[in-house]
Design brief:
binds copper (II) ion, 8 strands, binds heme C, 2 domains, 342 residues, five-stranded mixed beta sheet
Length: 342
């Protein structure tokens, strides 16, 4: 009796296997059949993405079924303008990705889900024919040999908040390098000010006039649209730590010890605050601090991150333009001279 059941089961099993092999085989190995991948989003504390790496082929759609096992997450592809998808607990979202160039892409969660939110990142490996995605030129801070971790002091700061509108009056007096892109990128506002202070053509301007001129120069390098884009990126990705107004008082870091790379009132020396713990970032609205940093330095910090301070690295996430917009927006905390306020 028992034996018969076992024997029958085996027959049934064999039949199922016989049916399953051609189907399964075709599903797994055929090139025409698209891949369906199930992906579960979980907070890093709960294990993060259920798959860290997704594999695919150039030109072949990857069908994803994505759900969340805990809270609301998001699904986004780094360095792309592709629309992002909200991932709700218990619901499956279906989405199809297709890549026309081989290479390594980053997918990430773009909805705040906790202090470790930014760790929710995974890789998409695309193989096959075609021109690989272009590699970036070396970031400017490396080309210029800027040490991101050493203090950047200001030489002088404005006594009142600088205004680009007022500075525009002196634009016609400025030397040619004042509107040169490379000079802007490699020079901090405070250094730039000192340089202009030595220009004979500007010697009749007051120190504050000169600061207004610096604000005007910075404004020339961006646009209201780019600043608004930077503001949106900041609100979504940075404010939880750096605070809505850049003061470094975001919900995640509010109660942590202050990071001070030795700029001013320094008690903490560079590299002292390392390890797993987060620190509280410095105040972007303090001109002593931000006006001593060149665009190349700020860009470098955003690309590379803080290495052990809690400041994430954003290189694989944002396009060059997006990082540029963030840099422009950060300066607007230190002086209210951005086109956004006009
Ligand atoms: C999880 C918290 C956290 C998030 C999110 C975060 N930061 Fe930071 N950031 C820090 C901390 C802490 C520091 C200070 C330590 C350091 O410089 O490494 C810092 C430092 C910086 C600095 C360096 C400033 C300087 O003068 O050296 C820049 C620039 C910066 N962040 C930009 C950003 C931008 C832009 C975003 C969003 C795209 C962002 N951060 C998101 C925590 C965070
Ligand atoms: Cu998340």
């Amino acid at each position: 009796m028992n034996k018969e059941i076992v024997a029958r089961s085996i027959v049934v099993l064999l039949i199922i296997i016989a049916i399953a092999i051609p189907f399964g085989g075709r599903w797994l190995f055929s090139n025409n059949q698209a891949n369906v991948i199930e992906l579960h989003a979980r907070m890093p504390e709960n294990g993060g993405w259920s798959l860290e790496t997704l594999y695919g082929q150039v030109g072949q759609p990857i069908h994803l079924r994505i759900t969340s096992d805990d809270v609301v997450h998001g699904f986004a592809i780094g360095r792309s303008e592709l629309p992002t998808t909200d991932i709700l607990p218990g619901e499956f979202i279906e989405t199809t990705l297709s890549f026309d160039r081989p290479g390594r892409y980053t997918f990430y969660c773009n909805r705040w889900c906790g202090p470790n939110h930014w760790r929710m990142r995974g890789t998409i490996e695309i193989s096959g024919e075609g021109e690989p995605i272009p590699t970036d030129p070396q970031p400017l801070f490396l080309q210029l040999g800027i040490d991101l971790d050493s203090p950047h002091n200001t030489e002088t700061i404005p006594t009142e908040t600088a205004s680009a509108e007022r500075g525009a009056r002196f634009a016609s007096l400025l030397p040619a390098y004042a509107v040169d892109r490379d000079t802007y990128l490699s020079t901090s506002p405070s250094r730039f000010w000192s340089r202009l202070r030595e220009e004979p053509a500007l010697s009749h301007l007051s120190d504050q006039n000169l600061w207004d001129t610096i604000a005007w120069i910075w404004q020339q390098q961006t646009s209201p649209e780019n600043l608004a884009a930077g503001q949106n990126l900041y609100a979504a990705n940075c404010a939880a730590c750096h605070g809505e107004t850049g003061k470094g008082d975001g919900v995640i870091v509010r109660d942590l010890p202050l990071w001070d790379p030795g700029n001013h009132n320094s008690e903490t020396k560079p590299h002292q605050v390392t390890g797993e713990g987060f620190v509280r970032p410095s105040d972007f609205s303090d001109p002593n601090y931000l006006l001593g940093a060149s665009p190349a330095l700020i860009e470098g910090k955003i690309i590379r991150g803080g290495m052990g301070t809690g400041m994430p690295y954003w290189g694989p996430i944002f396009t060059t333009q997006q990082i540029e917009n963030l840099v422009s927006y950060l300066y607007s905390f230190a002086w209210n001279s951005s086109p956004l306020d006009q």
